């Protein structure tokens, strides 16, 4: 017998915990679809979290904070784009460099912001709908950014699979030489996809500090960037699946607390492993079922050099 | 040619990035020397000062002795236990620091090892049990302050459900929960303490979720052990009360925050530094409590009624006047969750018992995960 109150509490928490993952995963999906592998999510997220918090504190406007969190993410993504697209450098290394850079810089600059109270984005209870028992709590009592994230997934799905821009991104990620011969500017498309992706990752970070935890501390992303790299694979590079994946992983993250509060004895050590175990299982599946839907973009992580034979 | 420049710039940027990454690990701050006989003190921290909790509270102590005793101080933060710790401690000793404070339990063996090689230096390890001729230990009886905050929580709850967001199952955390629960029991025998473990010291988002889970369950007072004030924020948002830890957390939750159990390390650091300056330092095992002010509770929220304040003050005075043993409230009768008598009426738990505590008292709901 499952207590409906407990279930509602779990589902509502899953959406809250999943939203920062969703922004970040959507960002990385766009980036990877264009063939650029950005491993620096953890560093970009934390930079977004810090910048968003600082801007909110200084301007008094949390939405401006979210915007600048995104812009900060874009700046780091630009560094990555410059190395991996213009210089054709090893993408894994620049990505990892961004992690160190982001964690280091925000730890250093963020010192004076710890313990400050900024301005935050609060949940909005949608009139009437939020009064529906259980459903209201689960679906209609979140902050605006949580709804925007779902909308964004739909928009990105549409752009990727129903517009010319999306087709160009996918083409560049699958067969850049073919796209090039069709007159698509490979580098430009990759730049745009990487910068846009960086923006969303930065917003994911800003969500953590401005809407979720509502504070700034050093290293507060606590490994979520790495989880999102797995989520991209989990969602098969599809924005619509990312919604499901992010909420599922968000739910796994909080499940242990709900069970403990309900008096079910679980080892939190085990619970902490669950998201990673799920990732491994999904990876296994994606290897076993070599279907296109599960496959990575063919040119992922490979710099495109015109005229170079593989 | 242009391409080559770009590569050079690129390498420079990467190098700068890596350097700043490393620099984040270990920063040293040096102040102007004073005119007195100069003592140099170094601090080794396990986490960034910015965690707003444990390390932050130690750094307040460091700043205090620097300002008040003209001691030249340096610190290394975010030092990994059992990893980089020995090297960092050794480096401070080689650089001529007279006294080196290592502020995490996990630094114990590294401290002892390095101390052997530097017999003329003084080492002070926080929260451990190994000592040597030139190694002392120090800690605070935080459970005393926890007990007082439990009295506040037990008085303020109306649902008789109190939530406790616990960090990692080690005796220090368990002792805090039990002391808190005994405080609750003193004023409200019907109330239960619900424990949720996060397995984290600072992951604000998770700690907030853990607090929300407890609030959803009906808990109307939330206590916590982690370094971040996220649990306080959850209480503020949901309109319930909260009890903070480490430092006064009232500014994060002005309405919810009732009081915090706080550290005041400057008391111990001042004592040790005075001994060092006067040349009378000897290896001691310092474990002070509320009577010396090492631990305390922060000012109350206006919502706390007068009679509760009075009762807390009376209990606090018992420690200060020496009317109760230092181990109070761990004085029998104490029952565990299964109802077994752990300590009979009037018996006092020894310090040994406290340091190895691995059970919950009878008004706690929840399990201690096997570690």
TrEMBL record, chain A:
Protein name listed in UniProt: ABC transporter permease
InterPro entries tied to this protein: ABC_BtuC-like, ABC_transp_permease
One GO CC annotation: plasma membrane
Membrane topology: Multi-pass membrane protein
Pfam families tied to this protein: BPD_transp_2 (PF02653)
Entries under PANTHER family matching the protein: ABC TRANSPORTER PERMEASE PROTEIN, SUGAR ABC TRANSPORTER INTEGRAL MEMBRANE PROTEIN-RELATED
Superkingdom of the source species: Archaea
Principal location: membrane
Spans traversing the lipid bilayer: 6-24, 36-57, 63-83, 95-114, 144-161, 191-213, 270-288
Record key words, sorted: Cell membrane, Membrane, Transmembrane, Transmembrane helix
Keyword hit for Cell membrane: yes
Location in the cell: Cell membrane
Molecular function, one GO term: transmembrane transporter activity
From TrEMBL, chain B:
Cellular component GO terms held in the UniProt record: plasma membrane
Annotated Pfam families: Bmp
Family annotation (Gene3D superfamilies): 3.40.50.2300
ABC transporter substrate-binding protein PnrA-like domain mapped to chain residues: 40-338
Keywords: Signal
UniProt xrefs under PROSITE patterns: PROKAR_LIPOPROTEIN (PS51257)
InterPro entries tied to this protein: ABC-Purine-Binding, PnrA-like
Protein name per the record: BMP family ABC transporter substrate-binding protein
């Amino acid at each position: 017998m499952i207590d409906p109150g407990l279930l509602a509490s779990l589902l509502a928490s899953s959406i809250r915990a999943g939203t920062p993952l969703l922004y970040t995963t959507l960002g990385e999906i766009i980036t990877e679809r264009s063939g650029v592998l950005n491993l620096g999510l953890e560093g970009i997220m934390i930079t977004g979290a810090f910048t968003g918090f600082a801007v909110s504190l200084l301007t008094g406007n949390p939405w401006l904070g979210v915007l600048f969190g995104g812009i900060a993410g874009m700046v780091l993504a630009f560094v990555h784009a410059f190395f991996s697209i213009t210089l054709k450098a090893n993408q894994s290394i620049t990505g990892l460099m961004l992690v160190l850079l982001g964690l280091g810089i925000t730890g250093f600059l963020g010192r004076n912001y710890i313990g400050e109270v900024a301005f935050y984005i609060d949940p909005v209870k949608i009139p009437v709908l939020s009064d529906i028992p259980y459903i209201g709590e689960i679906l209609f009592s979140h902050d605006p950014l949580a709804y925007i994230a779902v909308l964004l997934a739909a928009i990105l799905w549409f752009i990727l699979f129903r517009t010319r821009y999306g087709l160009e991104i996918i083409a560049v990620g699958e067969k850049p030489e073919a796209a090039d011969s069709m007159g698509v500017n490979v580098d430009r498309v990759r730049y745009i996809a990487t910068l846009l992706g960086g923006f969303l990752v930065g917003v994911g970070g800003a969500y953590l500090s401005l809407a979720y935890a509502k504070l700034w501390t050093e290293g507060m992303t606590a490994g979520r960037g790495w989880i999102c790299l797995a989520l991209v694979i989990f969602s098969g590079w599809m924005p619509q699946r990312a919604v499901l994946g992010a909420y599922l992983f968000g739910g796994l993250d909080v499940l242990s607390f709900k069970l403990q509060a309900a008096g079910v004895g679980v080892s939190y050590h085990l619970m902490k492993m669950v998201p990673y175990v799920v990732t491994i299982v999904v990876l296994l599946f994606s290897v076993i079922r070599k279907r296109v839907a599960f496959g990575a973009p063919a040119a992922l992580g490979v710099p495109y050099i015109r005229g170079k034979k593989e | 040619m242009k391409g080559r420049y770009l590569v050079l710039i690129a390498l420079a940027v990467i190098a700068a990035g890596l350097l700043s990454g490393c620099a984040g690990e270990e920063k040293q701050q040096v102040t102007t020397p004073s005119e007195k006989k100069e003592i140099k003190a170094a601090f080794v921290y396990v986490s960034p000062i910015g965690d707003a909790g444990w390390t932050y509270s130690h750094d307040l102590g460091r700043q205090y002795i620097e300002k008040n005793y003209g001691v030249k101080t340096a610190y290394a933060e975010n030092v990994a236990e059992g990893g980089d710790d020995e090297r960092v401690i050794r480096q401070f000793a080689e650089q001529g620091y007279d006294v080196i404070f290592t502020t995490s339990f996990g630094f114990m063996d590294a401290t002892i090892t390095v101390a052997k090689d530097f017999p003329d230096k003084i080492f002070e390890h926080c929260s451990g049990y190994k000592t040597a001729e030139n190694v002392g230990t120090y800690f605070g009886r935080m459970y005393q302050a926890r007990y007082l905050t439990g009295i506040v929580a037990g008085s303020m709850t109306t649902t008789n459900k109190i939530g406790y967001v616990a960090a990692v199952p080690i005796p220090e955390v368990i002792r805090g929960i039990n002391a808190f629960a005994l405080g609750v029991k003193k004023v409200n025998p019907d109330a239960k303490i619900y424990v949720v473990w996060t397995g984290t010291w600072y992951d604000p988002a998770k700690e907030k979720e853990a607090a929300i889970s407890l609030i959803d369950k009906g808990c109307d007072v939330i206590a916590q052990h982690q370094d971040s004030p996220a649990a306080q924020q959850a209480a503020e948002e949901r309109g319930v009360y909260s009890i903070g830890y480490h430092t006064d957390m009232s500014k994060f939750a002005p309405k919810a925050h009732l009081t915090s159990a706080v550290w005041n390390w400057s008391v111990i650091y001042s004592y040790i530094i005075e001994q060092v300056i006067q040349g009378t330092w000897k290896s001691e095992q310092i474990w002070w409590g509320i009577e010396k002010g090492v631990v305390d509770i922060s000012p109350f929220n206006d919502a706390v009624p007068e009679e509760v304040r009075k009762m807390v003050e009376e209990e606090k005075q018992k420690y200060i006047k020496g009317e109760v043993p230092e181990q109070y409230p761990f004085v029998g009768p104490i029952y565990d969750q299964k109802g077994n008598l752990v300590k009979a009426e009037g018996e006092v738990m020894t310090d040994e018992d406290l340091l190895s505590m691995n059970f919950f008292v009878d008004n706690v709901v929840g399990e201690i995960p096997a570690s």
